[in-house]
Amino acid sequence: MPKQIIFSDKAPAPIGPYSQAVKVNGTVYVSGQIAAELAKSGDIKAETGMVMQNIGHILGAAGLGFQNVVKASIFLRDMNDFASVNEIYGSFFTKEPPARETVQVARLPKDVNVEISVVAVE
């Protein structure tokens, strides 16, 4: 089962020993994406929008789009941001949204407020 590493220069490069995404048997696993440059702004909607744009760039590098996403995981620093994150996230899935979970975590890389990962299929 060969795997293909997916990379987009339009999204942030990995900050550790992982790939932006890996494709195996028609399934693309996109690593958690963050928007470190916006984390300190206090604008959770802008931060979420940048995260989703990064995911879109990576999906595009794999020849896919948001319509191919079947599963998403959202990690929040503060569950009080849920409604704002949900509003922006939802604007990328206007019909047939993927399965998803949202959890609050103690801390995220680079002290961001939101991290999102997705799984997409061809």
From TrEMBL:
<dbReference type="Pfam" id="PF01042">
    <property type="entry name" value="Ribonuc_L-PSP"/>
</dbReference>
<dbReference type="InterPro" id="IPR006175">
    <property type="entry name" value="YjgF/YER057c/UK114"/>
</dbReference>
<keyword id="KW-0378">Hydrolase</keyword>
<dbReference type="GO" id="GO:0120241">
    <property type="term" value="F:2-iminobutanoate/2-iminopropanoate deaminase"/>
</dbReference>
<comment type="similarity">
    <text>Belongs to the RutC family.</text>
</comment>
<dbReference type="InterPro" id="IPR035959">
    <property type="entry name" value="RutC-like_sf"/>
</dbReference>
<protein>
    <submittedName>
        <fullName>2-iminobutanoate/2-iminopropanoate deaminase</fullName>
        <ecNumber>3.5.99.10</ecNumber>
    </submittedName>
</protein>
<dbReference type="InterPro" id="IPR006056">
    <property type="entry name" value="RidA"/>
</dbReference>
